[in-house]
Amino acid sequence: MAVKTGKRNAMPTLTLPTKRGIDDLDSDDEPKLATAAESGVLAASLLRSRENWLKSIFRLFSSENQAAPVHTATSCGVCSISIGGLHVFPETTFYEVRYSATPPAPPSPAPAWPYGSLAQNPGIIQAMNTAAAANPIFANMLANAAAGTASTIELQTLSFLVQSLPGHAAPVASTPIQATSTNFQLVLQYSESPSERWLIPRGPAIYEKATAGDDFTLTFAIPLQGGSAAQDDFTAVPTLGTSAAQVVTMDFKKPPTTLSDTISRWIVGTERENRMRLTKLKEQSKRNYLVYRVAPKDVIANLQGVSGTDYTMTSIKPGSRPVAPPSPPKPKRKPGRKPKADTQSISAPAPTAVYSPPSGRWAVDLGLDHHHKEAKVSNGVAALRGVQENRSCSCTGWS
Q1: Buried b / exposed e across 35-59, counting CB within 10 Å, b at 16+?
Q2: Which domain of life is it from (predicted)?
Q3: Structural domain contains residue 118
Q4: How many CB atoms sit inside 10 A of residue 163's CB?
Q5: Mean pLDDT of all residues in 306-314
Q6: How far apart are CA 233 and CA 236, in angstroms?
Q7: Which terminal residue of the chain has fewer beta carbons within 10 Å of its beta carbon, N or C?
Q8: Domain match, 381 and 271 both
């Protein structure tokens, strides 16, 4: 099976090995084949399948470099979708797109009075001449209009009188054709590529609502060769080749009510007819099966490169890789003993008191108190001696 991507996909093209039937698949008893994990066929297939849904399967409607035709887009809602039960695309936005019609040519300026527009009708001319001969007021307004001197009120009155004449048929106004409820396209926008919008092709489709909740399933057909310009046309029953289409199932998870209503209106044809056409497409589609185990190492390298496995793949079988010997246990450290508290009191060395006679200011102060000088000095010396002998003293002699 050739897994190819669209023009906008930068990933390289790679051909994956396939076979026609399940019985033709390689069995596990062939020792030359690599394992499924080492081959990487499944990983590459899933990755390429998702890239194709994002970039190439649907037809591009608009992007940053490609402008869409003149249209009006109305958002129908946002929900998560699952395609084929394999790929989940969260927060996908759907739009109801209606192409704008070609703007009509600007209308020609109306004549100053309606007589000029009716001059080519002989029946109207005869009726106007008869009315002018019988009604002088009408004849006067008609003459003023022909000379270009009639007022606006006279022109309006003359227009009403001309329309009431026998043989005058009022012009039929061209009314635009109203768009039917199915006259629109369905466009989706992935959250992974918000600058791109993709067109869902029209064809046989079936809308099936879940038994509980708002979830529903949309089964439709996608052309394998890509869309064409003819598919953009709005047709009651679009033409779809039975040999170039594939049936796809898209599951909508928790969609809003507006999206469910839009999808149901988008489907054309009866359910019975669409179901028969989809069944026929399934029967005629040719199915291939992937070969998960391959032998050539170059193919394995290519598959691993495409699937993004930039690391060495190892087997998870027990005993397939050496087990490192356990490291010896580290010796446990014994908790240290706490030092016992010493209950014996340690006496501090006794302070040594040194007496020095006062000098300077204190000498002057003592000199002023001559009568108590000897008594204060003797009391101070006795106090210092008491500190040396008993290490405690109440020095009251200084007061």
Answers
A1: ebebbbbebbbebbbbbbbbbbbbb
A2: Eukaryota
A3: no
A4: 14
A5: 53
A6: 10
A7: C
A8: no
CA distances from 384 to 69, 190, 335, 379 (A): 116, 101, 52, 9
What is the percent of the chain where pLDDT is above 70? 53
137-148 as b/e: b if 16+ CB within 10 A: ebeebbebbeee
Q: Is residue 21 part of a domain?
A: no
Cβ atoms within 10 A of the Cβ of 62, count? 19
What's the pTM? 0.52
Q: What's the pLDDT score for residue 27?
A: 55
d(CA 41, CA 21): 17
What pLDDT, on a 0 to 100 scale, did the predictor assign at position 7?
45
> How far is residue 94's CA from residue 186's CA, in Å, rounded to a whole number?
7
Task: Tell me which DSSP letter residue 79 carries.
Answer: E
User: Comparing C-alpha atoms, which of 264, 260, 254 is closest to residue 79?
Assistant: 254
Find all residues with CB under 8 Å of 29, minimum gap 6, and list them.
none
For the ranges 280-284, 289-293, 333-337, the lowest mean pLDDT is seen at 333-337
Burial (CB count <10 Å: 0-12, 13-18, 19+), residue 16: buried
Residues 238/185, Cβ–Cβ less than 8 Å? no
Residue 374, φ and ψ in degrees, nearest 5: -65, -40
Tokens of 42: 């499944």
Same domain (yes/no): 191, 272: yes
Report DSSP state, residue 99. Answer: E
3-state secondary structure (DSSP) of residue 300:
helix
Considering the domain architecture, whether residues 249 and 396 belong to the same structural domain is answered as: no
CATH number of the domain that residue 233 is part of: 2.30.29
Within this chain, do residues 230 and 90 fall inside the same structural domain, yes or no? yes
Lookup: tokens for 79: 């929900």
Q: What is the helix (H) or strand (E) element at residue 71, kind and residue range?
A: strand 71-83
Strand pairing class (205-209; 216-223): antiparallel
Which string of DSSP letters, residue by residue, matches 302-344? HHHHHHT--S-----STTSS--PPPPPPPPPPPPPPPPPPP-S
Regarding whether 201 and 97 lie in a shared domain, the answer is yes
Place of tokens 């109203």: 178
* 43 DSSP assignment: H
The domain total for the chain is: 3
Domain with 153 in it:
125-163
Same domain for 82 and 140, yes or no, is: no
